[in-house]
User: Fold these one by one.
Assistant:
Number 1:
Amino acid sequence: MAKFTGSMSKGLAAATLDKEYQDQRRMSKSRNRPKHALYGVTSGGNAFASSMASGIGGLARHPLEGAEKEGLQGFVKGVGKGFLGLATKPAIGAFDLASNVAEGVRNTTTVFDQEGLDRVRLTRFIGMDGIVRPYSQREALGQFWLKTLDDGKHFHEDYIAHLELPGKDMIVMLKYNRIMLVRAKKLKVEWDIKLNDIQTISKERTGMTITLKGGTNGPFVPVQEQSSRDWLYRQIGVAVRHFNERYNAKG
């Protein structure tokens, strides 16, 4: 039951096209897995209420955000996105409620067991400069993913940024010394390249080409949207500059 409802809600969440909502839902589910029936009801109810609020609020939020980015065309897209969310998010909330209750019942040891009451909010991301900035859900989630990759193999590594590749179940993960491609569902590294092994990174029309030292062809990173390509390219620049500073300081 829990697996079926979980799969249904996950599929519908992808159909909303709402990246922020998907990240928030994924974060909540990863950190708030019900370990007993009481918590399953509570977390399921919270998930349902959150999805309902997001669906209703999206009717106004998405058109405004779209208008700011693309004018009239963005406004029209935002209206469509808002109505899509209104149609799908309540259903997602209902499936999440059923999934949490079913999983909580399955995992029940005693209703008074407090070990399942995990924190909903992930640990704040603080960059290498040590400056505490306003809490970013996206950065906190990216840091959490990095530290849980490959069963915690990269736990002590420093996170810079990440980019999810739409429709590909892949995440580009950037550390201060490496760039990696990660399978999102399994949180397993597909490939991993040291920054000092890279000769050039060039932006193409449909993604980014990595060339290794000696002219060897590296992997191609498929990033369709230009804004996403530009953003990722800037973040790689940050990583390279920091890597060079560390290297020169040691030298």
Number 2:
Amino acid sequence: AIGGGYEFARVAAANLREKDDAWNPTIGGFVGGSIVGLRYRSFPAVLGFGALLAIIQGTFDYTGGKMTGFARDAEVDEYERMEQVRRNKRRPIEETLHELGEGRGIYGPGYQERRAERLKKRYGVDIPQPA
């Protein structure tokens, strides 16, 4: 029940707030801790356990989800690192077209000409070519 309450509150907070930050685990931690406090049938226990777990979960997430904090290299520029990641994951357009086909905003070279020919053949409509 504790884990389910924590996860539900964390995900619901993220969806309602439309943000992914340290407040979501804090809210989830409060709900989870409150469930632990219900065992003692005391309102101060519910609030106390809720606050304790909220602080622990919020701090844990805020520090990067590790006991030692973020493991960033101070010498590496974050923008350059993300550009390198993006370049490494980029695929050639030919491979994308082969797997997905044309359409949905993905068009290969010569698409306009092929489209004009297809429309002329099917419907007899001339499509003017862009200059």
Number 3:
Amino acid sequence: MEFCLPDAADADSPLKSDELQVLRAQYEKEGYYVGVQTKFNYAWGLIKSSSRNEQQEGVRLLSDIFRNSPERRRECLYYLALGNYKLGNYAEARRYNDLLLDHEPGNLQASSLRGLIDDKVAKEGLMGVAILSGVAIAAGVVGGMLFKGARRR
């Protein structure tokens, strides 16, 4: 039986606060002896959150599961990629997603996420170029004004 992962767009729809609270309460109730499934469920809910702090906590919990529970690594790879994508850590997102695709080249969710990551990297790369161009133009205008002012004296 194969574990079915949700589409990457699913991560953009946060849980209702009472739904996340149920996951948090179970996680806190188990305390020091929290089970892997409970921790995973809570991390999943945090990743879906629109709060950056909660997303970071979700990534931290998933990283812990990834390190300590080899049987859950496959599931963690996708959500670590997704969480890092939502946090804007595109290099990390790509690294985790590529690890999953190395093991499952036909994974549609990971392929979809790869497209989203690549689009964001390209968009932010173009935005960075535009910002640098704008700064260069502004510096040129200011420099020209200063040079022109210095010549008048």
